[in-house]
Design a protein that fits this description.
With 104 residues, this protein is mostly helical. The protein has one domain (8-59, 79-103). It has four helices and no strands. Helix 1 (26-38) packs across helix 2 (44-56). It is elongated. The two termini are 38 Å apart.
Length: 104
Amino acid sequence: MALVARSPADYCYNASMTRIELELPDELLETARARAADAGFTTVEAYASALFQEELRPADEDLERLLLERINDPRPSIEDSPEFWDEIQKQVRGQTEAAQRRQE
């Protein structure tokens, strides 16, 4: 899992949080340290907290993030038109037929 679009500062200690302890094999701990450093975190603990927060974040936040990314995307918009859906169906049919021919 990669952490994106959030700053390490977003994952700070809060006094109302519950503390947990994890036991990790040395090799996994070294991997976690390297990934934490690569992601800009100063500690494995902050990195692990960020992973938990990212993984357990409500799905509507994911949707909101995706919508904002698309709004800010410089590529042209896709118009939801009958022609668009006809083209999608044509592509799917072509892929399905090609897959069926490969199975024969």
